[in-house]
Structures are given as structure tokens and as C-alpha cells.
Amino acid sequence: MIALAWPLALTNLSQHAMTLTNAVILGWLSTEALAAATLAANLYWVVMAPMLGCAFAAGPILAQARGRGRLKGGAGRGWVREMRRGARAALLAALLLTLPCLLLLWQGEAVLRALGQDPALAALAGTYLNWMMWGLVPCAGFFVLRSFTAAMERPRPALVVTLLAVGLNAVFCWLLVFGTGAWGGFGIAGAGLASLLADLILFGGLYAVVALDRQLGRFRLLGRFWRWDAARIAEIWRVGLPISGTLLLEIGVFSAAALAVGWFGAAAVAAHAIAVQVAACTFMVPMGIGQAATARVGVLTGAGDAAGARRAGWLAVALGAGFMAAAALGLMLGARWIAWGFLDQRDPVAAAAAGLGAVLLTVAGVFQLADGVQAVASGALRGLKDTRVPMLLAALGYWGLGMPVGLGLAFLAGLGPLGIWLGLAAGLAVVAGLMLRRWARLAAAPALG
User: Fold this and answer.
1) Which of 130, 240, 322, 379 might form a disulfide with 293, Cβ 3.0–4.6 angstroms?
2) DSSP readout, 178-227?
3) 188 and 171 in contact (C-beta within 8 Å)?
């Protein structure tokens, strides 16, 4: 489990490092640029959730196909064709969903203004999105290929490519934001262009590695990828759309929180951005463990090894909980130091943003354990292709409890952004408990699921 999980977790961290790098560089540009990029990124991740769900659905589908091939002793090439067709269907299903996403992001400024955001911040965010949005198409390909390599228990190619993209993104972002001459000094638009270039590198690099690898290249994943396979695309949507719903509910509650915090001014948005970026950074590790759980539970379930799949799921939950307990301690002890790392001390708004950011980071430390447990338990459930009920549980926890409590504490109790974050913590705790209970019930069955 660790051998599979650590490259996946590092890949997640590396991908998040690109967003984090852009946030830090834009924070050095101005507090307003950081706040605008945060609003843009929140809208971007909400809009891309449907595509991500279909890409993630490839994970359990391909893992179970590989497990069935193992059950048959690997004889014949039927399971190879099944994996190729499954990956091709996932790519087509994801690409189809990028089209409405692009149309919505193109109107990003208007959407943010309609949601009550400051017109100046909305205009900056729209500029950022107009470049960043085109990365959705290569992103779809990258996430499908990454699900394939995880199902094959070969996560290192994605890690190597992502590390390369992180370094190049940092160089591109710095030059395009602060540089001089024809290739620099574009401000927030430069950060959006850097993100697009990084997405192209991610897909192109991973496809090249997969195609040239002796073991992975034999699948010829993009061979005739345009061929329509209605049955497999329907399966991708059946498994993937509830994953999209779960992602949309989770990403959406944090995005809604960012919009609500936006009503308290630029310093509050910057503080929220700092806390979200750091909490998302620690979340990448249990997310990677959850992805490993999807692959291991899926392969073992496909191979008919219910006991092995059960052990894999519980072990993953324990690993995720252990890491996040340590992360919680680190966040609570280093909150103020971390907050100042994102800001220019010469900025007149920086002191207010750092003070509130430190408070929000402390709250983030409180909910770390719950966030890790729900991520890993959800990953284990995906390995069983159990995605519909987890979506309903997420709806109950995030929107039935978390957001109403947060808004009540923020506006009725007068706690402001702190109240919103306390509501998020309550919602995450409920989701974690419900997801863990769901996994325990399905894992106890003689035949998993």
C-alpha cells in the first residue's frame, strides 16, 4: 500500500505545488491579485468537477478489469483490450464534459460579479481564467492516463512528469508575471498562461512515457480513441457522475465559503486563500492514499479476493488518519509563521490577512483528521464502484450541515470568516463518520459491496 500510495501522494502534492506556486507569486505581486486568483481557482475547480469524476471513474473500472485478468492467470489479451477500451471511453466521456465547462469559464468575470464579488477582483479573476481555462482539455487526458497507471500499480511515471511540470511552471510563472520584455510582465494573466503551459506538459509528458514504456505501451491507449463505445461510456458516466457529484459538493462548499468570505473584503479572501492552500496541501497525502486504496481494493475485488480488499481498505484508512494527525499538530503550532510566508510585509493589508490567516489555519488543523479519513474511506468505496451513496452522504454533511452552520456562525453570531470555517469543520466531521460507517458495513459483507 505504501509503495503505491507515496508516489500518488507526491504526484498530488506536486500538482498542488503548481497552484501554491502561483498563489505565492501572485501574493508577492499584490494582495488583490492573490484574492482574485483564489476566486478564479475556486470557480475553475467547481466547473471542472464533472470532467474529473469521469477521469477518476477510470480508476476502479480499470483496476477491476486488471484484477479479472489476474484471476484468469493473465492468459490471453482480453483484459488488455478491456483496459484499453475502458481508458478510451473515459477519455471521450471526460472530453465531452469539458465543452460546457469552457463556455462557463469564458464568462468567469460575469459569473463572479453575479455572485456578488467585488467588480475589480472579478475582472482580475476573469483575466486569469481566460488563459487558465484552456488547460482543461490536456487535464482530462492527464487524469485518465494517471488513473490507468494507478490501476497498473505503476504510479511513478506520473510523479516524474508532474515534478518536471512543477519546476517549469515556477519558472514560467515568475517570468510571465514579473519578467520584462516580450515574454514577461503580464501580471495575473501571466500566471494563467503558466498554468496552461504546465497542463500541456503534464499530458504530453505522461503520454510520451506511457507510449514508450515496454509494459504500458502495449495497451496503445489512444489507438482509435475516437471510436464510440456506448456501453463503456455509459458505465463511465454511471460510476463517474456520482464521483463528479461528490467532488462538486466538496469543492463547491469550499468555493461557496470563498465567495462568502469575499463579502468581508480582500484581506479576508487572502487569509482564506492561505488557509485553503495549506489545508489542500496536507490533503494531497490522504487523497493519494485514497487513490491507492481505489486501485488495491479494485484489483483485489476483481480478482475475487474479498479478504485482501478488506485489509487494503482498512490499512489505507489507518495510514491516512495517522498522517493527518501529525499534520494537524504542525498546522496548529506553525500557523502564524505559515501565514506570513504568503505575503509581502510591505503590503498595507498584509498584517490583517496574516492575522486572520493564522486563525483559519488553526481551525484547519482541527479538521485535518476528519478530512483525511473521509478522503481515504471514499477512495476505498470507489474501489468497489460504490459512488452513489457516498455522493448523498457528502451532500448531507457539507450542505445539510456544514454550510448552514458556517453561514449562521458568520453572519448571525458575528464570527465572520472564522464562523464559516467552523461550519466547514463540522461538515467534514460528519462526512468522515458517515463514509467510515459505509465502508465498515460493505467491508463486513462476505462478498464486498
Assistant:
1) 379
2) H--GGGS--THHHHHHHHHHHHHHHHHHHHHHHHHSTTTGGG-TTTTTT-
3) no
Tell whether 319 is covered by a domain. Answer: yes
d(CA 150, CA 144): 10
Number of domains the chain is built from? 1
Rounded (5°) CA angle 393-378-232: 100
For residue 108, what are the domain limits? 2-443
Residue 410 in any domain: the answer is yes
Three-state SS for 365-404 is: HHCHHHHHHHHHHHHHHHHCCCCHHHHHHHHHHHHHHHHH
Q: Is residue 376 part of a domain?
A: yes
In order along its 449 residues, the chain shows pLDDT tens digits of 999 999 999 988 888 888 778 888 888 888 788 888 888 887 888 888 888 888 889 888 888 888 887 666 554 467 778 888 888 899 999 888 898 999 999 999 999 999 888 899 899 999 999 999 999 999 999 999 999 998 888 989 999 999 999 999 999 999 999 877 667 778 899 999 999 999 999 999 999 999 998 888 888 887 777 778 888 889 999 998 999 898 888 888 887 888 888 888 878 888 888 888 888 889 999 999 999 999 999 999 988 889 999 999 999 999 999 999 999 999 889 888 888 887 767 777 788 888 888 999 999 988 899 999 999 999 999 999 999 999 999 999 999 999 999 999 999 999 999 999 999 999 999 999 999 999 999 988 766 65
In 3D space, the residue among 380, 236, 367 whose CA is nearest the CA of residue 300 turns out to be: 380
- What 3-state DSSP class applies to 361? helix
Question: 449 lies in a domain?
Answer: no
Question: Whole-model pTM?
Answer: 0.83
